[in-house]
Amino acid sequence: MKILHVLLFCTLIVSCSKKTMPGTSATPSSGNGTVASTEAWITDPALSVLFQKKNNVLTGSSGPVIQVDDKQSFQTIDGFGFCLTGGSAFHIHNMEEASRAALLKELFATDGNSIGTSYLRVSIGASDLDEKVFSYDDLPEGQTDTLMEKFSLLPDKAFLIPVLKEILAINPSIKILGSPWSPPTWMKTNNNSKGGSLKPEYYNAYARYFIKYIQGMKAEGITIDAITIQNEPLHPGNNPSLLMLPEQQAAFIKQSLGPAFKSSGISTKIILYDHNADRPDYPMSILADKDAAQYVDGSAFHLYAGPIDTLSKVHDAYPDKNLYFTEQWVGAPGNLPEDLKWHIKNLIIGATRNWCKVSLQWNLAANSKQEPHTPGGCTECLGAVTIDGNQVKRNSAYYIIAHAAKFVRPGSVRISSTTVNGLPNVAFKTPEGKKVLIVLNESNTTQTFTIEENGTSMNTNLNSGAVGTYVW
After folding, report:
1. What confidence tens digit (pLDDT) does each residue in 152-197 have?
2. What GO terms are given for molecular function (predicted)?
């Protein structure tokens, strides 16, 4: 099943005193205006419009102005996408070949009805959305393996690695981030998958674990572009999980991980923190440590606590370090109108306006029972798609990511766009020179507004709660 996009041009009325938007065609119309054509992709839950290329005809009325200015540019975008959990890979892999191929093309290709997912996060070992807890070096109680002689990617070879290979065949340039939920239990203070801390005497062994993972995936044809050191290091209550305080993460980086990557010729980026926006002090304290910071590319955030604009404080203090938004869940059963507004405002607009190069939703796929998950893992994590056998249902996160991923391709640069009350927005310039503006109408009424760029303008509107991506 695929979304049937309406293959139409968006028709917009432009005042006769203005030029049409660049790259558009203009024809006479009744009244005092001209008609300009551009692409507008709309999701409007109230009208059951789901990411459709839409005709939008106006009568020439104007409104608040969103001024787009490509002379002011900010960060380069690496991509938009999802977390490909072990459970997600399980459901995708178990589809019949033709159904799986169609779904992966829809998710990862860039043409036709595809949404162009361009970035993935995978778990290093199990996340809480695997059927069971595992690491790549599980040992009988009392045994250790500091040289990683028993390290094996075998648990990922059943589902995750085959699915990644199919994705890479569709999009060879997709970037992949790896994040661990827990080290092997023999490295931990409590010898348990849940909680505990990494023992300092195993810092070097754990650095070798990361290197073996990166090298092992490379041998499978899978490049790991970046790693975070620990998923949610201040949340030891998940299964699996690890408590890693900032001073512990700093010590691990500068004493073991950074030097080990350097001596092994590992170019994979090291990213800090990977937790909520309420604790910017965590990554900033490590970035203040020059011995640790020399090995660090940047910091990653979630938004289960704290405001999104906190991220700009980290950028302003350390502008040479990158920012990534790496996870936000949608709770089952989902509420498209509310999910769309909150996530578009915070993850697509907010995260990128606050310097993030990446924005990711949580799990790509689950079944209708939100399975699998570990004992104690998330029981209400709604997939971007729900897969039952070969049947696919597209959920909130699918449309949220589609509004950015299809058009804001890797290498795009965020450019300036003015803030307008009730119409949060963000603008980009693509590598091909196109402009992309994503606008949310968070007000309670239909909003008419004007988009201006380089002396040209066009008028359009959005219903309450609707999202528009405008491309010219």
Report:
1. 999 999 999 999 999 999 999 999 999 999 999 999 999 999 999 9
2. hydrolase activity
Q: Is the pLDDT of residue 89 over 70?
A: yes
On whether both 25 and 169 belong to a single domain, the answer is no
Please tell me whether residue 72 adopts helix, strand or coil conformation.
strand
Q: Count up the domains in the chain and report the number.
A: 2
For the domain that residue 60 is a member of, what is the CATH number? 2.60.40.1180
Note the pLDDT of residue 60. Answer: 64
At which of 408, 431, 454 does a domain end?
408
Same domain, 47 and 85: no
- What residue numbers bound the domain in which 116 lies? 79-408
Residue whose C-alpha is closest to residue 169's, from 221, 115, 236, 244: 221
Q: How many CB atoms lie within 10 A of CB 33?
A: 21
User: Do both 384 and 420 map to the same domain?
Assistant: no
Mean pLDDT rounded to a whole number for the chain: 92
* Extended beta strands in 108-221, E state: 119-124, 175-180
Token pair listed for 11:
């028709």
CB 373 within 8 A of CB 314: no
Share of the chain above pLDDT 90, in %: 88
Decide: helix, strand or coil at residue 348.
helix
CA distance 409 to 79: 7
